[in-house]
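Changelog entry

Holo records now carry the ligand SMILES as an explicit input line rather than a separate metadata file. Below, a converted record for pyridoxal-5'-phosphate, shown in the new format.
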Amino acid sequence: MTALRVLAAMSGGVDSAVAAARAAEAGHEVTGVHLALSANPTSYRTGARGCCTLEDARDARRAADVIGIPFYVWDMAERFAADVVDDFVAEYARGNTPNPCLRCNEKIKFAAVLDRAVALGFDAVCTGHHARLVPVEDRESGDSAGPLAGGLTGQVRLARSADPAKDQSYVLGVLTAAQLSRAMFPLGDSTKVQVRAEAARRGLAVAEKPDSHDVCFIADGDTQGFLTSKLGASPGPIVDHDGQVVGSHQGSYGFTIGQRRGLRIGSPAADGRARYVLDIEPVSGTVRVGPPELLDVDEIVAVRPVWSGRAPSSEPMAAEVQLRAHGETFPATCWLDDGSLRIRLERPARGVARGQAAVLYDGDTVLGSGTISQTALADAALPVSARS
Amino acid sequence: MVNLESASDRHKAAGRLAPGTPVYLDHAATTPMLPEALAAMVAELVHTGNPSSLHNAGRRARRVVEESREQIALAFGARPSEVVFTSGGTEADNLAVKGLFWARQSGPRPRRRVLATAIEHHAVLDSVQWLGEHQNADVEWLSVDSAGLLSPEVLRAAIERDPDSVALVSVMWANNEVGAVQPITRLAEVAAEFGIPFHSDAVQAAGQLPVSLAASGATALTVTGHKIGGPVGAGALLLARGVDPVPVLHGGGQERDVRSGTLDTAAIRAFAVAVEHATARRDEHAARIGQLRDNLVDRILSIVPDAILNGPAPGEHRLPGNAHFSFPGCEGDALLMLLDAKGVACSTGSACTAGVAQPSHVLLAMGADKFRARGSLRFTFGRTSTQADVDALGTVIGEVVERARRAVRQAAPPAAASQAGPIAAAAAS
Ligand SMILES: Cc1ncc(COP(=O)(O)O)c(C=O)c1O
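Structure line, unchanged by the conversion:
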């Protein structure tokens, strides 16, 4: 194997620390880089775990010192604000439900950071994501994809982690084949328990550090409050599926399709059953609610498709589709239509939110993804959430 | 994907350190300890004794401290009683700025104006700022010219607006980033004309220039050990007799009641050895590192013709051991990383916030734009520097600058192009 120049993105958490350690141990020339994503990283917050506190930067530096690799902080705050935070707010304002981790992988870690790294002479970016990259035999040339064959490392496929509970292939489904060819995910074959044990064995102080769950740029975990501070209050009606106004809200962007809690509908619905958010109409500020069966959809349009490997032909193909992080998969038929990805599910899915990614799998392997823009139920008289 | 399997050739640091010794061009950050100072410190650490104690062990320690004080006083044109030991430059600066300001608040009319240049080290800059924000000081930043120099006329004009309201003036002797050497004697003279205390941070000047409390006419001078071959953690405020700043540290009343705390005998001993050594060889040392610096400037300008030497032209207004460049189209932190990977240690010169380099306040005060302030690097020479260091930098600087430029160029159209393959690019439209 040739030693590669590897940039290890180190968040200050246990996963990226062990990933960097493994890459270094494998003989690569590894440099740790912590991405400063907050414009004002002045706090030593406790409680909420993120990836942009001073404490996280310190933890990352400490881990790099223990591993014995150079370490730098890269200021990505401007790019992060524009490509992730502003996008997050704008998507909510449009009535969509964005996934900022996915956007960060797509625009920051494997775009801005990767591009800068390559320009500065690095071969690859290594992260602590729980997902696998598996070399693909190159059938045309008959060569097996050696580490430096074809481009950097030859064809690879992105596959689920060995630890199903921690699998992060979904949030990597937005990466192109070119991006994946310069990625390194050393943790894909390990479980989280193994990673923590290894961190302890390696003397990494972050071994016991809790996982991050919250949106890293919302310090207190209050997404609703964050959006209100950015978008201001904009009251509107909550309307039942039959058109009856059943309540009001302070901002339609606070809702997600499929949401049940926090609707604060005063009186019980006429049929006495629970109400769920069916749709959000940001222009009129209307939030439509209804019984759960109206949340069922089996037709999905996803825009901006991205392929992890080769692009498929225009023929319909069978795949399993995952519609949210840690969600179940649905068997489906997919095809490309005028640049968009069309997905027909074999059985309906409930509560599919616009703005989330639809990631296509073939078994464990990620095929590609698109951003959900429309959903409908083929047999229903009324599509509950169809707009372009 | 990148193969993670066992490396056949496991040169872990392959390509990281250039063969040979690392090249240390960051003496303004800290210097290697002088072997004699190290030996003196280790020898002293063996002994027990608090210099304030009255018994034999205490007397022994006291003798070491007082001999050291006398050596340092002699080297810096002060009387022994004018040497106030501190934990270093930061503490001495805090004591001078805050202590002198507070001392000037008693009396018939409180004096609230604090005059300092906009290019001070953060130990002065932030102390002054703090006085403004929390102690009702009226802060006035004295502007410098594009080379970083303060004209005595600018100081005079600022004072003359209302001489009686000025609490103190603080102007650093030599700037730690761009090496600008101020006309300290003339500036101190202006302050003295109005009876205003004048402090100067001489941390970078000491060891390269003749720093003298008496000859300069300053009220107080800051010096520190680790920039001249001494240990970190020992420094001094040279404080003219009869000047009594209000203490920052209260306690046992050591050091003229101005700076309490048990003295670090071993560190003070080593500090004095370093000062004595540096003073004895100062002119010869300055000439030698000045030549290395001139050579480095020529080399860089011939290899990177559009590089800009920031600060005064080499000569009497610039520290001999300082070179500071802006490399147009580069980011300083990328340059630093690439040079580090080649075994060359230097600095962007400016402060960091959580590891993120901030545009230098010094360059901004000199009128540089944000981009020039960001793409800068400082190279500083010291006792252990050799021509080989200059040669090593000369060998790599060209390719490093070229690489750093590529990184900036390719980042220019945000998000576009990137690594996205043709499929994604087509689909994204
Ligand atoms: C001009 C100047 N003043 C003060 C200091 C602080 O000195 P010390 O590190 O001894 O606290 C430094 C060192 O960084 C300096 O360069």
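Spot-checked after migration. The longest helix of chain A spans residues 100-119. The longest strand of chain A covers residues 296-307.
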